Amino acid sequence: MIRALALLLMLTLALPARAQEAVAVFTAPGVDTDAAAGTAPGVSLIVRSTTDIAILAPALTGFVTRHPQITIRYEQWGSNALYADSLRACEGDGPGADVVISSGVHQMVDLVNRACAQPYRSPLTDALPDTRKWRNEIWGITQEAAVTIYNSALVPAEDVPQSRFALLDLMRRSPLRYRGKIATYDIQASGLGFLFAFMDSQAATTFGGLLEGFSRVNAVATCCSAEIIQGVAEGRYLMAYNVLGSYVASAPQANIGIIHPTDYTLFLSRALVIPRGAANAQGAALFLDYLLSPEGRRALTEANLIQQPDREDTSLPESARRFISIDPTTLVAMDRHRQLNFIAKWRGTFGQIAP
Amino acid sequence: MAKAWLPRTLLARVMLGVLSLLAMGGVVVSLAAFAYGQNAAQQAFDRLLVGAAQDIAESVNIVGGVPVADIPVSAFGLLSLAQDDRIAYAVRGPSGALLTGHPWATAAADLPRSLDAPRFFDGTMQGEAARYVTVVRPFSERDYSGVVSITVGQTSRARSEMAYDLTTRALLATGLGGVALILGAFFVIRSAMRPLERMAQELAERDPYDLTPMPTDGPAEVAVMVASMNRFMQRLDRQVGAMKNLISDTAHQLRTPVAAIRAQAELALEDDPAQRPARLDRLLRRTRSLGNLLDQMLSRALVIHRTDNAPPAPVDLRDIALHIFEERDHELLSPDIEVLLDLGDQAATIMGDEISLREAVKNMLANALRHGASPVSLGVTRVGDRAEIWVQDAGDGPPADMLSQIGERFARSAASRGKSAGLGLSIMRAVAQAFDGTVGMAQTPAGYRVTLSFPAHGDAHNEVGP
Fold first, then answer.
1. CATH value of B237-455 in 3.30.360.10, 3.40.50.460, 3.40.50.150, 3.30.565.10
2. What is the ipTM, given to two decimal places?
3. Could you tell me the residue ranges of all domains in chain B?
């Protein structure tokens, strides 16, 4: 219906110089389809995000339906590239986006700390808890769990690791069976992967054991949620650690099982920033308010971008929920020495980055 | 000279003064609160800053001859206690080369010597006011020797907010206190002023002819005013009374003698010439008597006026007696009566008015000369703490029925007879009353004595005055 009318997806093969992976233009239903060609009536809002277009599309469509005078140009980027692009725009080197949304929360906090964002306040932003905003310049708009997934057809029920301890034991017990069959994000390729691994290293001592275990089973560090999920579904991987639950749930596959680790489960809130040089800051503010409004939240919830941790199928105890808060402490993950140190340790386990 | 801008009522003036004092105090307190707030916020957040810097300093290790920082999350946790402030930090080697952190966090110009001597300084961070601290950590390892400097900075939002918060709280408390003080001052001042208001109201409502005393309750300052006002009104009352008396006395007492003189004069004209010398002689006596009466009335008016107006001074009664004796009026008045002077050798000084006393004693002497028997004595004695001046004659004194009405202002019978002992006694009584004295009349073996007795002033043996 509305989505079918408004959504136009095109692959960006024609733009090799730019790092965006895909682009889509959203206009209100009934607006001339020429808008898609770039002669958009009204105002254009450039949104750069790490989120897959398909997942965010309902929310974007809802927004342009509510504000028909605005056309959204949505660009999907990798988190590291998006951070680099935002820094470049912040330093005045060419135009930037109007809205930046990234799962690399530490990178977004760093942008704010470098005074690359502009403040905005409304009753809706004020209603956010303190752990999901900072300086009124960055806001957490989603709530997504980092889960372990497994191929339910290939992994026997007794092997399903409900916690990190179980996963450790599993890797010790049957290293041969899982050799090369456990995947996780490559922390150098993915900002989100780095953040999850870094938070793991902060959260518990299991992290050292995990690295050792991954090393023993020759785990695979690779890029991108979609690829990992696809791999597990196809049986290329039996298990994947620290995958964003929202991607799994939004692309349901019959043979994928989801585990919220019971020792602790990280919850991530994608960060939205309005860059200081945003050409359409007003539209960006409207967009933010929409995402925080009940209507926007409903759209995000339907897209599994807002997950209630107390849902029945997770049954996580309160103490096992670790929310990655949006505040300056995440800046530690941006420190050069710590990054070098951390990556060195990681590479010791996973070997050099694949060419 | 009242200034035009000052309010009219005393209450408003005092309140204006109190208000301006409080306003001055308020300004001082505000400045102090502002300075205090700033200082407190500065100290509180400087501690966070130096805590974070030292956390980072301690995380630096020498790894393969190179200092490597393992930035602890707790350091940034400390900094993020200032919730909305941006952060900058830098770890630098001995040459100032950046090891890790933000290049814009420049170190202090003069590096401190040791870890526990932080160097604070103000600066900016991307255009926002910021506060920085630099600490150093010296290393003396086999493969590395030198200092590593750690600079941590933070924008000043939380500081300003805290300073503002502290200041406004202090000001709010001060303001409430000030309002309470103003209200309190208003009520205290108004209750203190109430006696004045009451007095003013009483005076305003008073009949202008009402010279009765006002109540003298209330605070001492007001009581003094009321008392002196009462004294003033009493004096006025007495003087008005004396004036009234003088006028009515004159009218009463002169009518009869003047009518008598006219009758005598007419008779002298109409009678046969043989009777004329006797008539004229009677006319002369009547006229002389009228003169005496006038003298006495005037002297009484004088005495009453003086006793109210002339302040008492030390007077030796012997001087009075001597003065009267030396005037020798008595030789003129009654040449056939012998007058003796009896002065003691003790000083008889009292507080009084010389002229009034003289008039009184003159009247006493004249009475004795007129009604008494020769010889007449004029004397002064000192009896204990009292000084007395007296006149004594050898007679039996006035008849008893006359004594009963003696001293009254109206001695019409006396006046109508051309005699005026009544008026003389009234003068004596007025003088005695004015100077705390008494009038005594007594029959003694030696004769009839009239005494004026006053409290003595000073020692009997020491001469007082010139």
1. 3.30.565.10
2. 0.83
3. 10-164, 237-455
